[in-house]
Specification:
The complex is a heterodimer of chains A (325) and B (289).
Chain A: H1 13-32, H2 37-56, H3 60-67, H4 75-82, E1 85-88, E2 101-108, E3 111-118, H5 124-129, H6 137-152, E4 157-163, H7 170-174, H8 177-189, E5 195-204, H9 205-209, E6 216-220, E7 224-226, H10 230-237, H11 244-251, H12 255-260, E8 266-268, H13 279-298, H14 302-314, E9 320-321
Chain B: H1 11-21, E1 30-32, E2 39-41, H2 42-47, H3 63-70, E3 77-79, E4 83-84, H4 94-105, E5 111-118, E6 121-128, H5 139-155, E7 159-165, H6 173-192, E8 197-206, H7 207-210, E9 219-222, E10 228-229, H8 233-238, H9 251-256, E11 262-263, H10 266-279
Parallel strand pairs in B: 6-7, 7-8, 8-9, 8-10, 9-11
Antiparallel strand pairs in B: 1-2, 3-5, 5-6
Classes of the chains: A alpha/beta (325), B alpha/beta (289).
Chain lengths: 325, 289
């Protein structure tokens, strides 16, 4: 399939151009039977060098765009590749089934696990169906119900985060979106089974944290995790939403920042050029990280697991304590 | 001092002139009610716990004022007063904002914690103050809250918290988001210890605070007319939510939708808290012990 001209970010353009050239030569090779594999190899080497160069100099805002990339693999793309088997379970038993928050029982190389995560939509119709990946109270309550189910049968929980924010419509306020998130934070902090979270794309504020109180929090290399979207923050603090680029830098939202600040435990590398250039490899990397951490956590006794989870979040944040009067 | 412009006028005319001129009055004797425009004599307003005598609009209270009308005289002992913020991200203008917040609130941070007695019952208390950077929750607020909750668990005390906050402190970035998890995890421990946790929403309680430790109380009260909700108007507008009902995100709205237990006027707050604490099995501290 030739690389599409659509959905190419500005800084990806030179790469996309080379991709198009390579595809063109391949097509000609097929049509005319000329052997131009040398040209292809040379071009591919050029492209890879370019990828390396561009991606080692990414600005924070470029990473935001990558995390929101329309071609970026979404939660179900990972689910499909990572799990041997997946059976979706639905509903919060209170109000409705939320399509932005999905979950179910899955097998990860022979390990029985519970999976929950936000799902974004690919095309217009699908996006509406998934509410742009913004879960409502019933979504958080469904996630909690499934996590409680996992706790009952001592199965580890895998949370895959990819959401711009929690839904803030009138209906969500009416049904207590704050309460739903707060309850998840509280219940997850004492859930008696291992919990592992991976921020796949956008880790949007409370909407992300609502399923991210975990023993291990991991991030994909080009994912972002932020207390507020940079453009909203610029609008509120600087009264100028067009300063989103500067704000993205100031907010320190990349995976390397989060690791430095002690908010996440590890970064999962992405294929050159980002997860969307090689979904299989990206999913394999996530899978390997999940297996590693699940097996590590499985060795811990529940009391130790919970103590460490508490200590982990207890230790986050900075302050100074002066002793003088 | 020149006589006030309404001096000598009677009835309606006097009030009308006074209303027009109150903003110009320099000495802070009078306050205009933002809801009904009534001109209120400050001393009377203070006596009425800063509630408008005409329309019962509840003015915002500073943390110390709140403690004064809630805790028994002379029993409050402040904890961790010396925790102060640092700028973990090197965020532009954060240091000046902290300095401004200190100046406006005369506090070190946006929350005061400590222990005291309410109706003779020993309690742990956390009271937020909106004047310090909108009561926003950063590292200090999170740490002080967790410390007082842990202290309560250790000493077997109930916890009462008066919330007011615009949410997480954006200037501390992702670390402020983590305060939501941190404070709520402490609440989980409090619940496991079987201790009462009473939350009172005051104007305004929103976003990161509303979606964390504020919403997991055993009981949740709210002051009348307080703004209480998840997403601020500006954030919601950016997300494309345009039509919002009239009483949207008020205490009354939250009561109607089953999100809080009761709206309690300021003058009844202390007696209500005592009743609730007694139900939870808290007893008056005996002086003999």
């Amino acid at each position: 399939m030739p690389p599409s001209e659509w959905n190419v970010l500005d800084f990806e353009k030179p790469i996309a151009d080379l991709d198009t050239q390579i595809a063109e030569i391949r097509r000609l090779t097929m049509e005319r039977g000329e052997d131009r594999s040398d040209d292809i190899i040379a071009l591919e080497q050029d492209r890879d060098r370019l990828l390396q160069e561009i991606f080692s100099n990414l600005k924070t805002w470029d990473r935001v765009l990558l995390a929101r990339h329309p071609k970026r693999p979404y939660t179900l793309d990972y689910v499909r590749i990572m799990f041997d088997d997946y059976t979706e379970l639905s509903g919060d038993r209170l109000f409705a089934d939320d399509h932005a928050m999905i979950g179910g029982i899955a097998t990860l190389e022979g390990r029985q696990v519970m999976f929950v995560g936000q799902q974004k939509g690919r095309d217009l119709k699908d996006r509406q169906y998934r509410n742009f990946g913004s879960a409502k109270p019933e979504g958080y309550r469904k996630a909690l119900r499934l996590m409680k189910l996992a706790e009952k049968f001592k199965r580890p929980v895998i949370c895959l985060v990819d959401t711009p924010a929690a839904d803030c419509s009138v209906g969500s306020e009416e049904r207590g979106i704050s309460e739903a998130i707060a309850r998840n934070l509280m219940e997850m902090s004492t859930l008696e089974t291992p919990v592992i979270c991976v921020v796949l794309g956008e880790g949007g504020s409370g909407g992300a944290l609502g399923i991210a109180v975990a023993d291990r929090v991991l991030m994909l290399e080009h994912a972002v995790y932020s207390v507020i979207p940079p453009e909203s923050c610029a609008a509120i603090l600087w009264r100028d939403p067009t300063k989103q680029k500067e704000m993205a830098e100031a907010l320190k939202i990349t995976s390397t920042d989060a690791l430095k600040l002690g908010v996440i435990d590890d970064i999962i590398p992405e294929p050159p050029g980002g997860a969307h250039r090689n979904v299989d490899l990206a999913a394999r990397n996530v899978k390997n990280a999940l297996i590693k951490h699940i097996d590590e956590l499985a060795k811990l006794k529940t009391t130790k697991l919970l103590d460490e989870r508490y200590k982990k979040f207890r230790g986050m944040g900075v302050y100074q304590e002066s002793t003088e009067e | 001092m020149a006589p006030a412009p309404w001096f000598g006028l009677k009835g309606k005319a006097a009030r009308k002139t006074a209303r027009q001129s109150v903003d110009a009055l320099p000495d802070g004797l009078w306050t205009k009610c933002p809801k009904c425009n009534e001109i209120l004599f400050n001393k009377e307003l203070d006596k009425n716990l800063r509630v408008c005598s005409k329309c019962s609009y509840h003015y915002k209270l500073g943390a110390w004022e709140r403690i004064e009308i809630t805790v028994d005289d002379g029993t409050f002992v402040e904890a961790d007063a010396k925790l102060t913020a640092i700028n973990p991200l090197g965020f532009p203008e954060y240091d000046t904002k902290i300095a401004k917040g200190r100046l406006m609130s005369k506090l070190n941070e946006a929350i005061i914690t400590g222990t005291g007695e309410v109706g003779g019952i020993e309690i742990a208390l956390a009271v937020a103050d909106f004047r310090f950077m909108g009561g926003s929750m950063g590292g200090v607020v999170g740490e002080k809250f967790v410390r007082i909750v842990e202290h309560a668990i250790e000493k077997n005390l109930p916890v009462i918290t008066f919330t007011t906050s615009g949410g997480a402190r954006m200037q501390e970035g992702i670390l402020s988001l983590m305060q939501m998890a941190k404070t709520t995890a402490a609440c989980a421990r409090l619940h496991k210890a079987g201790l009462p946790y009473i939350v009172i929403f005051t104007d305004p309680t929103t976003a990161g605070v509303h979606a964390s430790y504020a919403s997991v109380g055993d009981v949740i009260f709210a002051e009348p007319g307080a703004l209480v909700g998840f997403a601020g108007a500006r954030v919601a507008q950016q997300a494309g939510v345009v039509h919002r009902p009239d009483n949207f995100q008020t205490s009354e709205f939250q009561l109607e939708h089953g999100m809080i237990d009761r709206i309690v006027p300021r003058k009844d707050m202390k007696s209500t808290l005592i009743k609730m604490l007694q139900f939870c099995g808290c007893e008056e501290k005996s002086d003999a012990a």
